[in-house]
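Listing S7. Sequence submitted for prediction.
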Amino acid sequence: VTAMTTTTTSARDRLSTTGVWYFTDALTSGQAADTAGRIESLGYSTMWMPETVGRDPFAHIAWLGSQTETLQFATGIANIFHRHPGPMKQVANTLAEQTAGRFVLGLGVSHSPLVAGLRGLDYSKPLTKMREYLAAMETQPFAGVAPEHEPLVLLAALGPKMLELSASAADGAHPYWTTPEHTVMARETIGPDALLCVEQKVILTTDADAARAAGNKQIDRYAALPNYRNNWKRLGFTEDEIEHREHRFVDAVVVWGDEDRVRAGVQAHYDAGADHVCVQPINPDGSVDIDWNVLEVLAPTS
């Protein structure tokens, strides 16, 4: 298998089919390639790769792209504070060309605890930073072999101003940790033409205690990050509901239940205006192991 397989499906068209959002940091490179291959075989269009303190997403996508034929890869989300706009343009164009167009560049401003706290970088005015960053990328040179089409650029957008920017200065938005109600608002904000690619955590179990416990483990990883917490409050959840993991909150941000329920939970985002939903398969046992059962249930080819 080579990454240079010619594809006729555009990146935008691929995003009309459900994708998968997954951390591969606990897997070896070989296991990650096997995982990508199985996701591809199930008919999912796109595999979303995060950037935190684990693998470099661009180097990893270069490897995974060489091991697959049709699966598209997206950064979810590459941190703009970590790279100058010029090198960001270089790596995006390089991957788009190497994978024959199977790459989407997701960009975000991350969070103050990661940018200022961990990296010691200035986190003032993140919206202004993103606006200036996108403008700078446009002016940066690229002397390599150009991809047939420039990669799509999506912004990690939750609030109205970043959503507006995702439509005016990029190709659309990639909201994370949201609800179908947020998807309705996001679509209204960005208009009918910009892409709206929404992440949704899904747990296939009818055991309410197990589902909420697994969901709470996920929330624990993010609850201290102000951008997510503020967005949950904008959606109408109180500080107490978030802090104490009340059922109303957990059940709204994590889809769980039987096959019909999880299918309906994903469909709710499409009905609310999403172009693409990338499902994050959470294992009911609370481990980081991918839950293939839910991916088989939600597979576009099923």
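Caption to Listing S7: primary sequence and predicted structure tokens for the chain studied. The domain at 11-298 is CATH 3.20.20.30 (TIM Barrel). The longest helix spans residues 208-222.
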